[in-house]
Amino acid sequence: MSAELAIVIVGMNTRDWLRDCLQSLRAHDDVALEVVVVDNCSEDGSCQMIEETFPEITLIRNSTLYGFAKNNNIGAAQTSAPMLLFLNPDTKVTPGALRAMLAVSERHPHCGIFGGRLSDADRQIERSVGAFPTLTSLAIDRLLAALSMLRPLLDHHSQRHYLCYDIERQVAWTTGAYLWIRRDVFDALEGWDSEIFMYGEDADLCYRSHKLGRPVLYTPDSQAFHYHNKVPLDRTRRKRLLREGLTLFARKHYGPLRARVYRRILGWLW
Predict the structure, then answer these.
(1) Span 96-124, average pLDDT
(2) If DSSP states are collapsed to H, E and C, what string results for the chain?
(3) What is the model's pLDDT at position 232?
(4) By mean pLDDT, which of 31-45, 65-79, 82-96, 226-240 is the weakest?
(5) What's the whole-number mean pLDDT along residues 193-210?
């Protein structure tokens, strides 16, 4: 049977999380899958774990450290299914979620990218969709987050603005932690922009899909748990990559002048 869905997972020293993620996928025997794991130079036994426990998985071992976007492209190139799911290793896909999203994609043939409902380990809804980043939105989010006395306001803002996560609707972007995209759209976009090492690459992919005339759809029908920030990454490096990713997004889509302003503002915010 030909695969209905190709799942690409990029992992780096996430052995235990990755094991749980892959185990959750095994429960979806109602969907014909091809699963590819791109190991990004792990040193924690991730590759050995996959070979011993999940022999059905296609494993790609990197000898060079690459960014999230390039690794996703490497993994996607080894698949052929008409739908792609890019999935973080620190996730667990809930029973029925894969079949549910495939059904959603059939109901909305004009949409190119799809995102689902994500919850953290405490079953709190994760902000997984939103508007494209602007200086105003970045500044407001950062300042509210920095003021603990306004934390309830931030939570209220997130629940209202980022929304009614119980409503299926078109959105600007959806997170790369659980991003579905049609193969024909992915090929037309020539994949992820590998110039963006990490952060902002999901917004970039969605932005380009909109320009292609293939909007992004969020649905609560397909759900996963995302153990956010459990992937090891130095805090200082995370901030630097976030600044660089958002600056590249701004330069590419808003122009060099605004990109320079973004870099200055982001340097102040983070």
Answers:
(1) 95
(2) CCCCEEEEEEECCCHHHHHHHHHHHHCCCCCCEEEEEEECCCCCCHHHHHHHHCCCCEEEECCCCCCHHHHHHHHHCCCCCCEEEEECCCEEECCCHHHHHHHHHHHCCCCCEEEEEEECCCCCECCCEECCCCHHHHHHHHHHHHCHHHHHHHHHHHHHHCCCCCCCEEECEECCCEEEEEHHHHHHCCCCCCCCCCCCHHHHHHHHHHHCCCCEEEEEEEEEEECCCCCCCCHHHHHHHHHHHHHHHHHHHHCHHHHHHHHHHHHHHC
(3) 56
(4) 226-240
(5) 92
Q: Closest Cα to residue 62, out of 10, 134, 5, 138? A: 10
How, if at all, do strands 5-11 and 83-87 pair? parallel
* 92 vs 108: CA distance, rounded Å: 25
Name the residue type at position 207.
Answer: Y
| 155 vs 180, higher pLDDT | 180
Q: Where are the domains of the chain?
A: 5-132+163-232
Please state which architecture CATH assigns to domain 5-132+163-232: Alpha-Beta Complex (3.90)
**Are the C-beta atoms of 86 and 185 separated by less than 8 Å?**
no
